[in-house]
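Record type: monomer structure entry
Structure origin: computed from sequence
Chain ID: A
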Amino acid sequence: MSAAPQPLTPHAGRRGRRRLAGLRVLVTGASSGVGAAVARVLAARGGRVLATARRGDRLAALSAEAAAAAPILWEAGDVTEPGFRRHLVDVAAERLGGLDILVAAAGCGAIGPFADATPATLDRVFDLDFRAPVELVRLCLPLLRCGVDPAVVFVGSILGLHPLPLHAEYCAAKAALASFAGSLRVELAADDIDVALVSLGPTESEFWSGLVAGERPAWSRGVQMPAAAAAEAIASGLERRSRDILPGWRARGFALAARLAPGIIDAVTARRLQAAARQKRPS
């Protein structure tokens, strides 16, 4: 007869790779894109996943398609609402018995010149891309401090590493998130809580169909990384205890250019903007 499995204990397994099996995970933005893919991948690797987003029908479908051996729980609501954030933490405590990993994947964007935008656009982007994940972490900290090999994962963007024109609100929110992650990482080191920042490049999602304002520029239409591949990179980064996760060669290339040659990025995007402006001028 085989021995009974040993229960997980707080902060167990801090040496070497993180073992995801059995860990309790909360994933925001899980109704589509990278959030849904992360929920699937972590559940398939043995995580006990609680998925959340506004669209309950999408979450129900995600849960229904999950294998019986890797179930996904869900709770629908708007993570920008303080009351729902508090409710979500209570649900994690009740249904998961605690929390070990928080993956903040919910996000939105806006396109267009900042001079033409409204304060409401700035508020919405910052509420979802920065304020919501930050305040959710604040509420989750008591659970994470009692968790097993705990970690926080912020799903950001390469545009938080270097901005592009026509994305001012989004770039600012993701840059703020990257800065916050760096500060929080040092603060939580004494609690043995890892903090990872994911900087996504062009990735399969509903980002463009869910813009707060504006529409996708023609020059941005390129090959996107599959959401499932990005999710696998995030899961592997969690296992390796990576501080910075850059899924795919496009993200890695942009990050390198942002560090070594930011002027080249600015020059290329300026030429694209000028070319787009010439095309719009009447002949």
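Annotation 1: The first helix runs from residue 33 to 44.
Annotation 2: The chain is about 45% helix and 10% strand.
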